[in-house]
From TrEMBL:
Keywords: Cell projection, Cilium, Cytoplasm, Cytoskeleton, Flagellum, Repeat, WD repeat. InterPro entries: Beta-prop_IFT80_2nd, TPR_IFT80_172_dom, WD40/YVTN_repeat-like_dom_sf, WD40_repeat_dom_sf, WD40_rpt. WD repeats lie at residues 112-144, 194-226. The keyword Cytoplasm applies. Component of the intraflagellar transport (IFT) complex B, which is essential for the development and maintenance of motile and sensory cilia. Pfam families: Beta-prop_IFT80_2nd, TPR_IFT80_172, WD40. Residues 310-598 form the IFT80 second beta-propeller domain. It is found in: Cytoplasm, Cytoskeleton, Cilium axoneme; Cytoplasm, Cytoskeleton, Cilium basal body. GO terms for biological process: cilium assembly. It comes from Aptenodytes forsteri (Emperor penguin). This is Intraflagellar transport protein 80 homolog.
Length: 754
């Protein structure tokens, strides 16, 4: 991926395509109104408007000579759920201590005395209900939409050079010399402060999607932090101080500006591309709303435009590159065939998976099949800017500012799921997961909650209650194969523990089981339910995660582990296709790992009930892990003959004996109940026996498990075998030399002779 920049070679007042009229003085700030229209302000007191479609540049207004603009920020486009197609007004801060609310046409609606000395930055919150300004006087002030002072959030002895709102508009991040400070708006809330750079911090930005913070300093470094102030990435020192940093809206990329320098970086910090344009220092960077291009305010009076091109998508034998804004190149690496795909508008997002390429442009969505690149299916989009595309085998999901839309690959709208307080603008691939029958979305308002929808109807699954965990959830992923009733979701919480649970929930609470600790990243396989993740220093593959519900002790035997030190710190799993896993290291390099193909074949045999083939495969491979997986799969599918062979092969003799005893039971119900007991589901086993009127067996099960109270309760309720329960209890107490103290047992013992 790289930036394609355009800049005028020498100042001319004639316009070429994207070659730009110059301001006479330093350009201090830029801001986009739509994806193709930009406003810039300069020390020559002019506000210019650039239209990229018609390549026209016009002067909007000439400000009074005493106003030197410093920062501008457009009023947010989506307010109160209503989405405007373009911004209508902006705030402009200036060196005379005022901020000005200016309409799109250049009329100054209001000027407000805000600070002593220059107002160095001004930012609207995401809802457009409040404005924060910071100044040379060291004050941080919050203003209402109309420009009335609400509160002075902070006062300090040094100028505040930059400010940003937190994702929920409840906190403000600002600079203080070499320190960064996060201060909540509520009084008496805890303030977070840390030393971020060795020099003065000139710029900071906080992204609402990934919750990460950027900072730029005069120590010539840029850094990435999480919202707790932990350092995730620090760059090497540059030649000159970093003068600007800015997140792209979707939080996947950010840009860094310095003297004659523009850099495009991944959210984890590593650099995609470095440009050396002749710009002077780039004082301000603004990303367009669709995240395809950015503009920079340059110290020599230029405005630089840069488009993100050469993004790449890979799947199996196809490699696709965005070579121009409206052109993709498809390369089939098997036969070296190359196809060019042309689009009417510029490409905003794309996704390649499951044999389909889905591309969204500013107005339309194209669906290509990898078998035929010539005839895409095309349909119009309701909203312009798609922020996320997710694919499953049968359908795909588009996320835009208006909602979630599930489409079939034939272009038919299947459903549009909704939940209370849904904010789609802050969803990313870690928060949404899609499978053939289910859609899961993590709630941003309450991070402990996952909403689960039926894909075809868009209605909440099961009893309609969302899945709730005890701590905040960081990343979610649905498995892709198997029956709907057995659909599983894996998620990582804030403590980096990995949990798995079933999505089907009817009344009874499904167990959420922990299967890993210190997990950085995870991915399900695309063709079988195999899960991989990176745990602390180990790369782990869970060949059959469902084992936790069948035979928990068997889980460690179904894992494949490998030392992960070669991936350096903070690696991310990009994809898990077939038996190949792609991992991106912290420095941006990709590593490809291959795992054994046999577990996937085993999954395939079991899903089509070919038990003999499965046993034959395990005998051929001679691997304990395979036998352990087969044992768990056989128990889950209640195939006792295969389970017996598999358990015998891994030396679990006690379990083999128990399975043999199950086979000898007379009735089908009691066999089923004992299989449930084998998996530790005592409650379900008891319910099954009671439904089949096998009262004595239900009582005996509880006696064997020493659930004395429940055994007595069942005996009394069904008026049978009370004496048997008391006899077993008495023998149990005698063996341990104890006296009866339980009141209920004493009460019934009086009336019954044993």
């Amino acid at each position: 991926m790289r930036l394609k920049t355009s800049l005028l070679k020498e100042p001319k007042h004639i316009l070429y395509f994207l070659n730009l009229i110059q301001h006479k003085e330093l350009v201090s700030c830029v801001g986009w109104t739509t994806a193709d229209e930009l406003y810039s302000c300069s020390d020559d007191h002019q506000i210019m408007k650039w239209n990229l479609l018609t390549s026209e540049t016009t002067r909007v207004v000439k400000l009074p000579d005493d106003i030197y603009p410093i920062d501008l920020h457009w009023f947010p486009r989506s307010v109160g759920g209503k989405k405007q197609s373009h911004a209508e007004s902006f705030v402009l801060t200036s060196s005379d201590g005022k901020f000005h609310l200016i309409s799109k046409l250049g009329r100054v609606e209001k000027s407000v005395e805000a600070h002593c000395g220059a107002v160095l930055a001004g930012r609207w919150n995401y809802e457009g209900t409040a404005l924060v300004t910071v100044g040379e006087d060291g004050q941080v002030k919050i203003w209402s939409k109309s420009g009335m002072l609400r509160s002075t959030l902070a006062q300090q002895g040094t100028p505040v050079y930059s400010v940003a709102w937190g994702p929920d508009s409840e906190k403000v991040l600002y600079t203080s010399g070499k320190h960064l400070i996060i201060k909540p708006l509520q009084p008496n809330a805890k303030i977070l402060q840390w030393k971020a750079h060795d020099g003065l911090i000139s710029k900071t930005d906080w992204n609402s999607v990934n919750d990460l913070i950027l900072s730029a300093g005069e120590d010539c470094k840029y850094k990435v932090w999480d919202s707790y102030g932990r350092l995730l990435y620090s760059s090497q020192p540059h030649e000159y101080p970093i003068t600007s940093v800015a997140w792209a809206v979707d939080g996947e990329l950010f840009a860094v500006g310095s003297f004659h320098t523009l850099r495009l970086c991944d959210k984890t910090g590593w650099s995609y591309a470095l440009e050396k344009p002749n710009t002077g220092s780039i004082f301000n960077i603004a990303w367009s709303i669709d995240g395809t291009q950015l503009a920079g305010a340059c110290g020599n009076g230029h405005v630089i435009f840069a488009h993100v091109v050469e993004q790449r998508w890979e799947w199996k034998n196809f490699e696709i590159t965005l070579i121009k804004r409206r052109t993709m190149e498809v390369h089939n690496v098997i036969n070296d065939a190359v196809d060019l795909l042309e689009f009417r508008d510029r490409v905003i997002k794309a996704s390649l998976n499951y044999g389909h390429l889905v591309v969204s442009t500013s107005l339309q969505c194209y669906v290509f099949s990898t078998k035929n690149w010539n005839t895409p299916l095309i349909f119009d989009l309701k909203e312009g800017t798609v922020s996320l595309i997710l694919q499953a085998e049968r359908h795909f999901l588009l996320v835009d500012g208006g909602g979630l839309y599930l489409y079939s690959y034939e272009g038919r709208l299947i459903s549009s799921p909704k939940f209370p307080g849904m904010r789609t603008d802050i969803l990313n691939a870690q928060m949404v997961s899609l499978s053939n029958d289910t859609l899961a979305v993590k709630d941003k308002a309450d991070e402990k909650v996952i909403y689960i929808f039926e894909a075809l109807s868009g209605k909440p699954l099961g009893d309609g209650k969302p899945l709730t965990h005890k701590t905040e959830i960081v990343e979610i992923a649905l498995d892709q194969k198997g029956l709907t009733s057995e659909r599983k979701i894996a998620f990582i919480d804030k403590n980096r523990d990995l949990y798995i649970t079933s999505v089907k929930r009817f009344g009874k609470e499904q167990k959420i089981v922990k299967i890993g600790t210190m997990v950085q990243t995870l991915a399900w396989n695309d063709t079988s339910n195999i899960l991989c993740g990176i745990q602390d220093t180990r790369f782990t593959v869970w060949y059959y995660p469902n084992t936790v519900y069948v035979d928990k002790d068997l889980l460690p035997k179904t894992l494949y582990e490998k030392d992960a030190s070669e991936f350096s710190k903070n690696p991310q799993i990009v994809r898990f296709v077939g038996n190949q896993i792609t991992i991106r290291r912290a420095d941006g390099s990709l590593i490809h790992l291959n795992i054994s193909p046999y577990p996937a074949i085993l999954h395939e045999y079991v899903s089509s009930s070919k038990w003999e083939d499965a046993v034959r495969l395990c005998r051929f491979v001679k691997d304990q892990t395979m036998w352990a997986c087969l044992a768990a799969m056989a128990i889950a599918n209640k195939d006792m003959a295969t389970a017996e062979i598999a358990y015998a092969s891994i030396g679990e003799i006690d379990k083999v004996q128990y399975i043999n005893s199950i086979k000898d039971l007379p009735s089908r119900e009691s066999r089923m109940a004992h299989i449930l007991l084998f998996s530790g589901n005592t409650q379900e086993a008891e319910t099954l026996l009671l439904q089949a009127s096998l009262i004595y067996q239900a009582i005996q099960v509880n006696i064997n498990l020493y659930n004395w109270d429940r055994a007595l309760e069942l005996a009394v309720k069904h008026k049978t075998h009370v004496d048997t329960v008391l006899a077993y209890r008495q023998k149990f107490l005698e063996d341990f030399g104890k006296k009866e103290t339980n009141k209920r047992f004493l009460q019934y013992a009086e009336g019954v002779s044993i």
